[in-house]
Amino acid sequence: MAKTAMKKDDLREAHRLLDLRDSIDVSDEEGQIVEVPRSDALRLSVTLHSYREKLLDDGDEVSASDVEQSAAIIDRKLEQKSGETEREEQ
Fold first, then answer.
1. What is the DSSP letter of 33?
2. How far apart are the C-alpha atoms of 4 and 84, rounded to whole Å?
3. Burial class for 49, CB neighbours closer than 10 Å (0-12, 13-18, 19+)
4. Residue 11: strand, helix, or coil
5. pLDDT of 31-76, one tens digit each?
6. Could you give the CA distance from residue 51 to residue 45 in angstroms, rounded to a whole number?
7. Count of other CB atoms within 10 angstroms of residue 40
């Protein structure tokens, strides 16, 4: 039963990422800035950091560095958005 629940969660996450990718592709084609929901950005950040660790464990430092750069961009944007939200609430 637990395996079934995990598979459903994995499928749900995969669909969420495909929808996000489609949104990014459409925005890119139209020359618009992509607005990624905060929850998706947080998930993506966590996934990239985990993947980076796996790459380092496997000895692939070059790919890990590339992944870290992507994660850092997302993390900076999340921090920037958090700062904007805090200022708006004050």
1. P
2. 40
3. middle
4. helix
5. 888 778 888 889 889 999 999 999 999 999 999 999 999 999 999 9
6. 10
7. 15
